[in-house]
Design goal:
The chain has about 230 residues and is α/β, with parallel strands linked by helices. The protein has a single domain, classed as Glutaredoxin. A 5-stranded mixed β-sheet has the order 5-4-3-8-9. The chain has a two-stranded antiparallel sheet with strand order 1-2. It has a two-stranded antiparallel sheet with strand order 6-7. It catalyses: a hydroperoxide + [thioredoxin]-dithiol = an alcohol + [thioredoxin]-disulfide + H2O.
């Protein structure tokens, strides 16, 4: 795919360069430095497993599930922390520009999940003009089953509150739990065929990596034959 817009990493570098140093910002920096040293979580659901499902909320607050929205189609599922996260906004806008159309051409559904209340999903969708599915995993049930659940450090939690951000009021389950930014590929049988987890939330899977994984793992030729 010819890439005409900057990568997520390039946009994050610009964001960091524009950040103003402060004691509050230092708390986030300390957390990010610690997270950059963390390995992939040990309890990660193995590739080849049935992908977990559960009750989800759409942006209007109606109950649904992955099975219902996918209808047997292969999918790329994006786990993000919330509409309040600047790195998540960068990532989802980039996927909008670089990923959504190529996946649609291949018959692959793009879905984004977070633990926010439904109005948070609506905010993310409207603010970034996202045409793909943006759903809430209200109790982090799917994220937990995948083994990608985490929470802010004490310092980052303090910094969030100093900036007026209280995850307990934004998350549907009234906790501070969030998923590690993750991209998962599900085949038409509902099997997890590829996953990429980022314990450091300032880094994300690039669009080109996702498309390469789709072509390698989702048997696109068979998908095309099925849809023809």
């Amino acid at each position: 795919m010819a890439q005409t817009s900057p990568t997520i990493a390039e946009q994050v570098a610009v964001l960091r360069a524009s950040s103003t140093p402060s004691p509050t910002a230092d708390k986030f920096t300390a957390e990010q430095q610690a997270l950059s040293l963390q390995p992939t979580p040990e309890g990660l659901l193995p590739v080849g497993s049935a992908f977990p499902d559960g009750d989800l909320l759409d942006a209007q607050g109606d109950t649904t599930s992955l099975g219902a929205v996918l209808g047997g189609a292969p999918a790329v599922v994006i786990f993000y922390r919330g509409a309040w996260c600047p790195y998540c906004n960068i990532a989802l806008r980039t996927y909008r520009d670089q990923l959504a159309s190529p996946l649609a051409d291949l018959g692959v559904t793009l879905v984004a999940l977070s633990p926010q209340k439904a109005d948070g999903s609506l905010t993310m969708k409207e603010k970034n003009e996202l045409e793909f599915l943006v759903l809430s995993d209200p109790g982090n049930g799917i994220a937990s089953a995948l083994g990608i659940l985490t929470h802010p450090s004490d310092g980052a939690r303090e910094a969030q509150l100093e900036r007026g951000l209280d995850l307990e009021t934004m998350n549907a389950d009234e906790t501070t739990n969030v998923p590690m930014p993750t991209v998962a590929l599900i085949d038409a049988d509902g099997t997890l065929v590829w996953i990429d987890v980022h314990p450091d939330y300032t880094t994300r899977t690039e669009s080109a990596e996702i498309l390469a994984a789709v072509h390698e793992n989702l048997l696109i030729g068979k998908v095309a034959d099925t849809n023809s």
